[in-house]
Amino acid sequence: MKYFVKYQIKPLRQTLFSLWTCAVCLTMTGAAGAQSLEDLLQVAAANNLTLQSLQKEHSAALEKAPQVNQLPDPEFGIGVFPLPVETRLGSQVVRFGATQMLPWPGTLDGKADLEMTKARAVHERTANQQIEVFYEIKKAWLRLYEIEQSKAVLLRNMRLLEALEQLALAKVEAGKSSAADVLRVQLKTNELEQQLDLLEVAKTAPTTTINQLLNRDLATPVNITDSLTFAPLPLDKATLFGQISQNHPMLKMLGWQQEASRQSISLNELESRPVFGVGFDYILVNERTDAEPPRNGRDIVQLRGTVKIPLDKGRFVAREQEENLKIEAVELQKKDIASRFQATIERAYASHEAARLQMDFYQKQTEITAAAIRILESEYSARGNRFDELLLLEKDLLDYDLKILKAIVDSHLAKASIEQFVF
């Protein structure tokens, strides 16, 4: 039996040695190429494809104003008389004409202002998209952080199990305990190894998410060297609620959409008014050969003025009603979004408080469990009994460590959720 136990302990030590070697190598590699969360956010702001697309869309929207604040193109024409019109001074041969239409004063500036307002709405949509991208990166980064720290907790627990196994082995060799105690420790160690393998696989999802949002190769490793403590919240709820309606890009975007509708109503009023036009005609006249009247063959210059009066006002009334309905619809949308934002903040504060309570509780449980483990270790060393209780407490200690880690991560998730509304 002693031979069997010694034979089993050798591969366990090799496994632990390999795990720690990998952990050290990964730590050194991570330190060499690690990027903090802030670094990742800066890369995303510069490289995210969705943000780049919206930035291009905003630049394109800014080019609309110079297109609409110009006078209509002048019209030029030429006319030939197949049957010349005879006048006292000669026959008319060719007519040259030009016309320039002039919108009602203020119409062109109104069109330019409207396009600039639409561009501002696109700009706020870009800012809101950046908030969403940053939040997704933070969530994925925190998930990756939890995975890496969970691996560290498991490795630390494996060290405790290794010491416990050495203790059990010594008691077996002394004839004060059963070899089953050693095997039970090895079973627990195998379970931790399985959990380590699963955690390594779980890294793929958050790593892929981060790399996709940063527009880089999906297999690029994301090395995390940060060490987080419980996250304090930046502001109180009342302050956040006051800031939302004034500063959040989504609500500002909707506000600019309402402003665009108001400007459209003003522009609609200007476009319902007459449009004026000025022009002139120049007519070439041939000289008469059958007489010599004064100013024989003198060309004709004609100045013209025109006015275009919109007679059907129905389309202008319908357009005004359309824009007013848009304003009302957006106002309801703003109220709905503000309500959803407040609900998100309430949930985040509740989640943060729950995480604080859990962390306090599990820290106390950890202290008590550690003290109980020390007592049971002393009893097992002395008498070789109550090993099952000792092993169970070791498992409880591992669970508490993982739950403390989760509480810390949850506090940062709540903070990240709230930071969407801090400007």
Q: Can you put this structure into words, describing what you see?
A:
The protein is of the alpha+beta class and 423 residues long. The chain has helices spanning 2-33, 37-47, 49-62, 65-68, 107-173, 179-202, 204-213, 237-247, 249-271, 314-383, 387-419; strands spanning 75-87, 90-102, 275-285, 300-308. A four-stranded antiparallel β-sheet has the order 1-2-3-4, with no helix packed on it. A hairpin with a 2-residue loop joins β1 (75-87) and β2. α3 (49-62) runs antiparallel to α5 (107-173) and α10 (314-383) runs antiparallel to α11 (387-419). The radius of gyration is 40 Å and the shape is rod-shaped. The two termini are 68 Å apart.
Outline of the structure:
This protein is an alpha+beta fold and 423 residues long.
Number of helices: 11
Which class do the helix and strand fractions yield? alpha+beta
Molecular shape: rod-shaped
- Uncertain segments of ≥5 residues (pLDDT<50)? 1-32
Oligomer: single chain
One letter per element, helices H and strands E, the order comes to HHHHEEHHHHHEEHH
Number of DSSP-assigned strands: 4
Largest sheet: 4 strands, antiparallel
Radius of gyration: 40 Å
Q: What is the helix fraction of residues, given as a range?
A: over 70%
Strand composition percent: 5-15%
End-to-end gap:
68 Å
